[in-house]
């Protein structure tokens, strides 16, 4: 009966140590790497368990909780808010540039129309349109 209890105790210690090695973070193991500790535990079950508890197990110092890298909500994340503000500014700048480009194209069209103002009949204006005293549609009154 004593042998059975001894075998059960050794088996429980081995399984506990093996599970402890497996659950331990690989950066917290001391001595050798986590994979090496698992191999030692399998090859030398009793001695490996004792060595693990003495030399390999991490200290029971309370470790600082890992810093959360991402807040739970997007409106709590300063990086997300910064990116959102940058996107808003870029969109406003893009809209402003489109408006300026459209204004520039309109002015260029107007200048082209003014420079080709002598060819009014080619554009469908009769010779009597400007002489009738009506407003000039192309704002070329000063050229006449």
Description:
- The protein has helices at 2-23, 34-43, 45-56, 78-115, 128-131.
- With 144 residues, the protein is mainly α.
- Helix 1 (2-23) crosses helix 3.
- The longest helix is centred in the C-terminal third of the chain and has 38 residues, at 78-115.
- It is rod-shaped and about 120 Å long.
- The model has no long low-confidence stretch (mean pLDDT 79).
Tell me the series of helices and strands, N- to C-terminal.
HHHHH
Low-confidence stretches: none
Q: Major β-sheet, in short?
A: none
The overall average pLDDT, rounded, is 79
Report the β-strand fraction as a percent range. Answer: under 5%
- Rg from alpha-carbon coordinates: 42 Å
Total E-strand runs: 0
DSSP helix fraction: 55-70%
Determine the number of helices (DSSP H or I, runs of at least 4 residues). 5
Give the oligomeric state: single chain
- What structural category characterises the helix and strand content? mainly alpha
First-to-last CA distance: 125 Å
Described by the principal axes of the CA atoms, the overall outline is: rod-shaped
